[in-house]
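Anyone? Bumping this.
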Amino acid sequence: MTEKTLLDRLGSYLDLSAKHRKKKADELEKIIGKLKKKEKALLAEAKKTDKGKKRDMLEKRAEILHAQRKKGLKALKKARQK
Amino acid sequence: MLRKIFLPSIFIILAWGFWVSPDFKTIAAGVSIFLFGMLSLEEGFQTFAGGTLERILKRTTDKTWKALSFGVISTTLMQSSSLVSVITISFISSGLITLASGVGIIFGANIGTTTGAWLVAGFGLKVKISAYAMPMLVFGVLLLFQKSRNLKGIGYILVGLGFLFLGIHYMKEGFDTFKDSFDLARFAVAGYPGLFLFAGIGIAATVVMQSSHATLVLTITALAVGQITYENALALAIGANVGTTITAIIGSMSANEQGKRLAAAHLIFNMITGLIAILFIHQLMAAVEWISARVGIASDDHTLKLAVFHTLFNMIGVLVMLPWIDRLVNMLQGMFAPKVVLSGQPKYLDDAAMEFPDTALEAARQETMRVWSHTIDVLSQAFGFTREQVLSDTDLAAVAQSQHKLPDFDIDKAYETEIKPLYSAIISFIGRSGFSWEKMQSEGIHWLREANQGMVDAIKASKHLRKNLEKAAGSTNEEQRMLYNNMRVQLSLLVRELEEIRLEGKDESPVLSLDHLRLVMKDHCEDLNASIAMHMSEGKMPGEMTISLLNDSNYAQEIFNKLVDTGETLFVRHNRTLSEAEQDVLLTEAELDELETASARSE
């Protein structure tokens, strides 16, 4: 292993903020994935439900999920920037 | 009565032994030093175990083979099946692992404990062990004086190992000189009478010392100097195996029925294993000879052969009992029926759960969930409904409209009998547990305290609200009646929502539930405030009534806030602070408002 490679590896090992950002990005990806899955499921259930309070509630929850996903995607983009 | 005379009797026997024989004094001191070493080792492992071990245990015991492996590895590392039993009983008592997993761990611990015999026979007797003990003691004691918890823990482990080795050294020395003055081998009993007699002695010695390791080490050191015969040593090992269940039995006394079931499983397994060993002793001895020849153990090395025998009969016991785990669990569940607990009495806060921080936290959480269940009962009835009506799809507005008198309900009595005793028990339990909690556990305890306080505050506010709810139900002023009905319906619907979130379980994303809860609360509060504002502006109520309504809407607001905070803690955050990523996804108040506005526009 050359000195430069060794120093680079040591540097990336010690670069805690990059590690922290990567960990956060990984977690955000997981959360966004879960939210997307849940949003699809809620919209599908809302389609099958008759108009009324229950359908309104399902659609409202799907809207919240959509808003959270959008926000999460922005946060993910920021976390991935160096 | 027996307990009162037991300890003095032991003292008298020991004192007589010391007076009669200084060599017996050396052996007894060796045993004491060995036992103290085990206590130090346990103390050391507990330092590191607080949190890490429990997390591993929760994740690695969902299948029988995993539970078995965990039992083997943890007992081998900690050299104490007693500690593993106590941990398992605590975890089972608090519901963190199942009985089947616990039984698997105990089976594995029985195999793991046999490594002790290998260590002593293979290493302890072959080298000048005190040479290793002394530096360990010196460094260990130095570390004990350090402030760092981890260094102290390492210190306890080193000191424990040092005393273990020193104890073995003194036992060896003691038996070496003892044989010159008194030949125990003269008392050897051959055949089955000897087998049963020495197995009985092994059981008794292990029960007194509460350590099968100590009995085995004594046996091995005595065997090494020819103070007992090989056959009698095998019987002592069988007895030690049965006697070790006493630790689990003692530990289960302060546990609930789950802990008692595990202790019974331990006893049943070890007795069956002991019985197999006794019935097939000759076949096992022949197997030991065969294995020893294959692995290169000398034919006169009886100490190592004893270690082989110990491992062999425990492994056979596990192989025989493994296919019967499910049947054993069913039988135990039938034998130990759950204790009937009155609703105002704690169910999970027993001494066994207090052994470790994670089990204490889980027990407190489970008890808090019971407080939540009682809170639903109390609030439902305070608002004039039944629990079944609130938690089903019942049209609460229609029910409220049909009521001209609220069903009788003594909220003070309900609080005193159902809520306060549990709340007090939880706070007292948390206070009694003298742990140095890890950060995550401290957070959990803080959130649980907050959740309990929140429920109590909500009930107290509902008590104030109830007075006017009762008056309004029978009021001739339709506006007043309608407003108060709306108030209690909205509050009950919030309880319904929170139960739905609770039942969705841990799979549901906490951030979704959190934002949804906040939006639901906004909706309920806005509905309530809008209807109050409308009726006030139309002047359909006299001034006094309006003031009461405004005060009561404050109580309603307080109940909303407390219930939502409680729900957040218990069902959404699950007693933890949200991670950074989760917080980034949560919507702000402004974003929620925007969402509401956009949604209203699209309607």
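Late reply, but here is one note on the structure posted above: The helical segments of chain A are 3-14, 16-48, 53-80.
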